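Take a sample.
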Amino acid sequence: MEHDSADDSSDPGREQASRAAEDDELAESMAALSRLSSGRWDLEDLLAEVASFAVKAIPGAEGAGLTLLEAGRADTIVKSALFVEAIDDIQYGLGQGPCISAAETRQTMRSGSLGADPRWPRFGPRAEQLGVHSVLSLPLIAGEVVVGAMNVYAHAPDSFDERSERLGQLFAVPAAIAVQNAQILAQTRRLAVSLQAALTSQEVIDQAIGIMRARSGISADEAYDRLRQRSQREHIKVNSVAADIVQEAVRQARARRRDTN
């Protein structure tokens, strides 16, 4: 019988070369993760980069999605391909699916036949209707904290094997660190903006109180009470009332300056 040289599975040399190439892809993706500087990226852009690296690092992957979990805020969800968005919309809309299970159990979830998988009886058939049969979901754990989860999808059945799972788990370690660093930086930026806004609001209120005292000879407490009463009457925030008073005082001062010139 003539041997079919096109059959890669019967050629140990080709199989070894394929595995070496996969190892190289993993190493390159992990190196790229280490070079990501979260200070140069918006949070969602950085997460999208992590998802795109996952597709390169994990054999069989056609698209990836990444979910960042954060207490007190809506989950941040990014994807590397349009079909991933459709699949993840189903998953989060139902509140059931491999990514949710991976985050809750802190365990990797793998399936090569989503439509028949009893773990997700509502999600699986709908994913199958979109032609997606395989998934590998990995929790992203930094220290003891689950910071998110990563979904890797493929259309063909049984696209991910034990090797894919093992390489995915290796990739998930630095990915979790990159995601946590980006999350911390984003939280710090939000806090800085919030504090600056609070300081600015108080400065405007203090300026308005000073203007009202100069005009009417009232105390600081009386001026603030008037600000608060107007705020309630007009259904706007105290700092907005104060800003109106300051802006009006500036307009009047400019008008007087023009009249004297």
